[in-house]
Design a protein that fits this description.
CATH architecture of the largest domain: Alpha Horseshoe
Number of strands: 0
Helix content: over 70%
Largest sheet: none
Radius of gyration: 69 Å
Number of domains: 2
Shape: rod-shaped
CATH class of the largest domain: Mainly Alpha
């Protein structure tokens, strides 16, 4: 602590002396400047300074000119390189065309016209091939459509025919006169001549008219269409029984009963078998089915 106080005392002691010495130096310099009788520099020095400044300006101008010239030269070189590159590219392109033309000539295409004709011929061949292929496809599609149309038309006609025949069957059920029934059945057979059911029902009607031979002919037609049609077999047995042909009557009745046993019960009470009801084979058929 005493050392610090000592240092502060020294600073305070010498500080005014330093400030006084600096102030004295400034006053001395000022007095000397005021006592000057002539300038510190001569015209020679001024001329020298001016020449140096002029030389510096010239050097700056030359430097600027050199830089500008260098920039222009570089731009010219860039343009020259671009032009040279474009020229070389065009030249190489023409060389390539010439080489391609030479190759084409070697391949047999002597000119652009030959190439054009060849391209056209190839295009025509491909187009003709495609057209032929699509024509075949269209023809196949048309054939399929025609077949489907024919099938649809046939189904439509069959449906209409079935509806008309169905209406005739309904009309047949409403008829009470035998001749009218025969007329309706004839209309059905006119629409569908091979209808075994219509032939058999017509045979049943003509049996009621006491026409057994006519019934036999109708049953033959029905059995020619469907040999196992049990109702036609039964009607044939009835017709043969009315004609007095017992063997055939029993034979057809047996076939009908073998196919459908309920005909044995119906035959037992059917007046068509009145002539053979005492026949042993007839009785055997009736009793055998009943047991």
């Amino acid at each position: 602590m005493p050392r610090i106080v000592f240092k502060l005392a020294l600073v305070l002691l010498f500080l005014p002396a330093g400030l006084w010495a600096q102030d004295a130096d400034q006053r001395l310099i000022k007095e000397r400047i005021e006592d000057l009788d002539k300038p510190l520099y001569s015209p020679f020095v001024e001329r020298y300074v001016l020449d140096e400044l002029k030389q510096l300006r010239k050097e700056q101008a030359n430097t600027r000119q050199e830089l500008t010239q260098q920039i222009v030269d570089r731009e010219h070189k860039s343009v020259d390189r671009a032009v040279s590159y474009a020229t070389d590219t065009v030249t190489y392109f023409f060389y390539l065309i010439a080489a391609a033309s030479s190759v084409l000539v070697l391949l047999g295409w002597s000119s652009i016209r030959d190439i054009k004709e060849r391209v056209h011929s190839l295009a025509d061949e491909e187009i003709t091939k495609l057209v032929r292929e699509y024509e075949q496809r269209l023809a196949a599609i048309e054939e399929q459509l025609y077949q489907k149309t024919q099938h649809i038309e046939a189904n439509r006609e069959e449906i209409e025919l079935t509806q008309e025949i169905q209406s005739l069957w309904l009309r047949l059920q409403q008829e009470s006169l035998l001749n009218n029934k025969i007329s309706v059945l004839d209309e059905i057979l006119k629409l569908r001549p091979q209808d075994s059911e219509a032939l058999t029902y017509k045979a049943d009607v003509v049996l009621e008219l006491k026409e057994p031979q006519w019934a036999v002919n109708l049953c033959k037609q029905a059995l020619a269409v469907d040999p196992d049609y049990c109702f036609a077999l039964y009607q044939m047995a009835c017709a043969q029984a009315l004609l007095g042909v017992e063997d055939k009557a029993i034979s057809f009745l047996k076939k009908a009963i073998d196919l459908q046993a309920s005909y044995a019960i119906e035959a037992e009470s059917d007046i068509a078998f009145e002539n053979i009801k005492d026949h042993s084979e007839f009785l055997a058929l009736i009793s055998g089915s009943s047991s």
